[in-house]
Amino acid sequence: MTDTLTAAAARRIALAAQGFGARRPGPDTTRRQLARLIERLGVVQIDSVNVVSRAHYLPAFSRLGAYPRAMLEELAWARKRPLFEYWAHEASLLPLGMQPLLRWRMADARDGVGVWKGVARFLREHRQVVDSALQQIRERGPLAASELEIGKKGRGGWWGWSDAKRAAECLFWSGELTTATRRGAFERVYGLPDEVLPRAVLEAPTPTRDDAQRALVRIAARAMGIATERDLRDYFRMGVAETRARVSELVEAGGLLPVTVKGWREAAFLDPAARRPRRVEGDALLSPFDNVIWFRERTERMFGVRVRLEIYTPAQKRTHGYYVLPFLQGEAITARVDLKADRKAGALVVQASHAEPWADDETPARLSAELQRMAGWLGLETVRVEPKGDLAARLAGAVPRVRSSGGSAA
Q1: What is the three-class DSSP state of 356?
Q2: Within 10 Å of residue 117's Cβ, how many Cβ atoms?
Q3: If you placed Cys at 175, which of 40, 106, 109, 277 could pair as Cys (CB 3.0 to 4.6 Å)?
Q4: Of 22-26, 117-121, 160-164, 241-245, which gets the smallest average pLDDT?
C-alpha cells in the first residue's frame, strides 16, 4: 500500500525541502549557512541576465533574506571554495563533493554521446585549436577565452562564439578545463582541474555511471522532497531510460517511497527523510530560474500557475513582462512582478504587477515588504511601481514613497 497525500501536503513538503518557511538570517547569514543551503539544493543555476540580479544570487536571497552577496562569490570563485561549476541542470554551481558524480557526463561530452555529439566533433575536428588552448593555459595559468591567442573571432556559429571560446567551452564540458574564477562583467576564467580543484576531489574514486546517477536522483529527491519521475529527471537533466531505471532501483532499496498525490496524474516519490510540515509561512520573490519553479510542468502542478520566461518573446506579445519574478506568499504564488534594477536612479522598478485569482487583501503589503527588502539588498534606495497590471494600483498604495538603503551594494 502506498501513502496518499493531498496536493497541499505535497506542496508543503516540497517547499520545506527547498528551504522555505525557516527564519531568514538576512545580513547575519554566515558562510556556513549559505554553503549548507547550496548543499541542500544540490545545484544552483547560473545565468548572466542582470536586469535585476544575476540568477544565481537570487535563490539564497529568497530563502535567507538579504545575505552578503560577496559571500556567494567567495564560495564559488575564491581560491579555497566549496563549490565548482559544471553543466548540471544548466550551467550551474554545485558542491565540490559532487564533482565525481558528474564525470560520466564529462565522458559523454568527450565521446559524443547523445546531446554531446557537437562537442566531441569540435574536439576531434579542431584539435589544433583545442591543443593550443590547453597549452596556453598550462603555460600562462588560468585565462579567459578572450585572452587565448588562437583562431578567428566570432564567426557566427554557436552564439557567435570565437574559436577560442568554443574550444574553451568544449574542454569545460568534457572536464579537461574548469572555472578558475569569474572576472569583470561575469567572464569565465578557465583553469586546469589539477590546479584549481582540491586534491581530495581529484583523487576521489570515480563511481560507476549507475552509482553516480542513483546518487544524483537521491540528491534531487532530497532537494524536492516529493517529485514525479519527470521532476527527478529534470533536476540534473538526465535521460528518460536512465532516470526510470535509477528510480526503480532506489524504490526497491527503500531510498524512495512511492506515494499518490491527489490531483497529480503521475506517480510520485517521497524522500524518506522529508519533513511534513503542517504549515509553511513566510514570503519570497522567486527568480525565474529558481529551483522550486524552474521545471514549468511541476510549477503548474504544484501552484496552479503557468510560469513562462518571456525574455525572448516580442514585447507586444508578453503577458506579464520581461523579467518576471513570482511572489510566494506562504504556500501559494499570489502575484508576479516584472522587475528592473535602475541602478542609475537608485530604484527597483516594478514595470508591471499582476495578481493571481487567489491573492488576498494582505498580498499588496506583503509583496511591498519583500520588494523593499530586495531593493535594500541590491543597494537601491526606492521601489517604484509603474501603473501597469491589475495589481499595480494596490501595490503602489502599499509601497512607501521613500525608503533608506539597507543592504549591500549590487
Answers
A1: coil
A2: 13
A3: 106
A4: 160-164
Pairing state of beta strands 3-5 and 83-87? unpaired
Which grid cell is 244?
526510470
Assigned C-alpha cell, 390: 491589475
> Of 51, 47, 49, 71, which is closest to residue 343 (Cα–Cα)?
51
Please determine, for residue 410, whether its predicted confidence score (pLDDT) is greater than 50.
no
CA distance 102 to 218: 14
Burial 336-373 (b: 16+ CB within 10 A, else e): bbbbbbeeeeebbbbbbbbbbeebeeebbebbbebbbb
How high is the pLDDT of residue 154?
53
Q: What one-character-per-residue DSSP string does 151-220 give?
A: S-S--SSTTT--HHHHHHHHHHHTTSSEEEEEETTTEEEEE-HHHHS-HHHHTSPPPPHHHHHHHHHHHH
Q: Does 290 score more than 60 pLDDT?
A: yes
Long-range contacts of 343-348 (CB under 8 A, 24+ apart): 343/380, 343/410, 345/384, 346/380, 346/381, 346/382, 346/405, 347/375, 347/380, 347/381, 347/382, 347/383, 347/384, 348/52, 348/374, 348/375, 348/378, 348/380, 348/382, 348/383, 348/384
Evaluate if residue 179 carries a pLDDT over 80.
yes
- Dist CA 5 CA 11 (whole Å): 10
Residue 384, helix vs strand vs coil? strand
